[in-house]
Amino acid sequence: MAVSKLLPLTLFITFLCAVNNGRVEATHEIYPQFQSLSAVSVHQLHRTAFHFQPPKNWINDPNAPMYYNGIYHFFYQYNPKGAVWGNIVWAHSVSKDMINWKALEPAIYPSHRFDRKGAWSGSATILPGNKPVILYTGVDPNDRQVQNSAVPANLSDPYLRKWIKPAGLNPVVDPEAGVNASAFRDPTTAWWLSGHWRMVVGSKRNHRGMAYLYRSRDFIHWIKAKHPLHSAPRTGMWECPDFYPILLSGKQGLDTSVLGKQVKHILKVSLDVTRYDYYTVGTYLTDEDRYVPDNTSIDGWAGLRYDYGNFYASKTFFDPAKKRRILWGWVNESDTTSDDVRKGWAGIQAIPRIVWLDPNQRQLMQWPIQELETLRGTNVKMNHQMLKTGDHIEVKGISAAQADVDVTFYIPSLDKVEAFNLGWSLTDAQLLCAKKGSKVQGGIGPFGLLALASENLEEYTPVFFRIFKSSQKHIVLLCSDARSSSLKDGLYKPSFAGFVDVDLTDKKLSLRSLIDHSVVESFGAGGKTCITSRVYPTLAVLENAHLYAFNNGTETIIVENLNAWSMKKPLRMN
């Protein structure tokens, strides 16, 4: 469960109310004066068109996405009374394609002693007999976090509208002695192994992040294992853990219980202290019930991330209809709380992505689900366009505030690549992007796209590459720099960035950006590195938004091919 606004780490304030003796520890930015302040009117200016977003109010974590009897179900944390965190329920929407959604009544809301003070995040598992069960975190009257279950009231209802909490069974997991009851939440989808179900609950012990492991024969009585599935020092609270298998090759997804020699495992955790999602690629040692990251994967702040921008509290699920694993992630606002109250809404979900293992087996790849392409409208193309130093060429003929653009750049020569300064950090791409930006001239780069740009470039969000040369290889940096995105004061406008582990033998780099009024969601090198930015332009809005391809490096870059589409609104949204 996540509630804080995204802030730079140096400014992130943690509100601590002691940990000991079961007293509560919180990292919540709570605004009780706004929690039940419903919007009189909803400001539409920066609302997204094709991202998942309810008509008004606050949303955060994707809870338990699942596919059941031909229907995709999406549950998420929602405040039905206001545009800040509070009054949280499990909102519920259904779809046949994860693009067009129908909103239903909330599935879960606080109603019993075991969840009286909160019904927080969790996951769904489909049990034998095609029976779905939700595990979720409840907060009891003593502020203890416990794990509860809920089941559909009527399995014959195709939409599973009503969910019940089985009488006398909850909580199914109570934090025992030695477990921090105020940091014990977000149970995972369960997997089956050797006669037992297994699931993980996120926690921490002092500053050590913990993935506590629980086992059950019947999905009712759960016993804590003697040791966690995994833990790591100096990483703090592990929110929203996710543990799943992934094939060594190919894009096919796997059910959470699949094991085998051709399978690796992914452990993702959302670090409460940084507000980013990190994952490792590793091996699940079934005999020991332990997970061991590969030596190419690092736990903690220097590790791999799904997304190097505004993306948190993510959750995956296996889609058996199309044999794929789908990733959902929460994209919070980066304006102020008072802005959110004024506009009457806060939070969106990133476009669902398929995930698979990179052929190098060191990281994941991600790509928007194919169903998104059904929203593509007017198309324009650009082929074999030279971009000389200082060029910015407009992509005309589409709605630039609501677009899908996919471009491949060709780099004629890699001879004049800027040397990578040994004083720069290979673990802090964001610092390097902030230092260099989109205007400081390099050898190869910066080049890329100027999204949500005003006509005279008073505002623009550049998404771009820079290429450096170390003694051994080329180093590719992808940036999404919001510092020039808006003339408005008081916004959080970071220069998000990630390094791209890519071979430049063919001298090509691809970039796809989904532009949707106040969000720019970008996928570098076919999905090796992803960055999501929230921006709030004042000039580059609606029909006044523009899109450019640009190059501020000394070496000419060629737009080998560019496809851009205006994006239509889904037929039905929440």
Description:
It comes from Gossypium barbadense. Keywords: Glycosidase, Hydrolase, Signal. Belongs to the glycosyl hydrolase 32 family. Residues 1-26 form the signal peptide. GO terms for molecular function: hydrolase activity, hydrolyzing O-glycosyl compounds. The chain has 574 residues and is mostly beta strands. It folds into 2 domains: 58-368, Tachylectin-2, Chain A (5 Propeller), CATH 2.115.10.20; 377-567, Exo-inulinase, domain 1 (Jelly Rolls). 3% of the residues lie in helices and 44% in strands. The chain contains 2 helices and 39 strands. The strands form 7 sheets. Strands 28, 30, 31, 32, 33, 34 and 38 form a 7-stranded mixed sheet that branches. Strands 1, 2, 3, 4, 5 and 23 form a 6-stranded mixed sheet that branches. Strands 10, 11, 12, 13, 14 and 15 form a 6-stranded antiparallel sheet that branches. It starts with 56 loop residues before the first strand and ends in a 7-residue tail after the last strand. 50% of the residues are buried. The model is unreliable at 6-27 (pLDDT under 50).
**What class do helices, strands and sheet pairing give?**
mainly beta
If you average the pLDDT, what whole number results? 93
Q: How many structural units, i.e. domains?
A: 2
Question: If classified by CATH, what would the architecture of the largest domain be?
Answer: 5 Propeller
Kindly estimate the percentage of residues that lie in beta strands according to DSSP: 35-45%
Distance separating the two termini: 22 Å
Quantity of strands, as a count: 39
What is the fold named in CATH at topology level of the largest domain? Tachylectin-2, Chain A
Q: Report the radius of gyration as a whole number of Å.
A: 23 Å
The rough form would be described as globular
Which class of the largest domain in CATH terms? Mainly Beta
CATH superfamily of the largest domain: Glycosyl hydrolase domain, family 43
- Uncertain ranges: 6-27
* Largest sheet report: 7 strands, mixed
What's the helix count?
2
Q: How much helix is in the residues?
A: under 10%
Family: Belongs to the glycosyl hydrolase 32 family.
GO biological process, one term: carbohydrate metabolic process
Domain Glycosyl hydrolase family 32 C-terminal: 371-566
Keywords: Glycosidase, Hydrolase, Signal
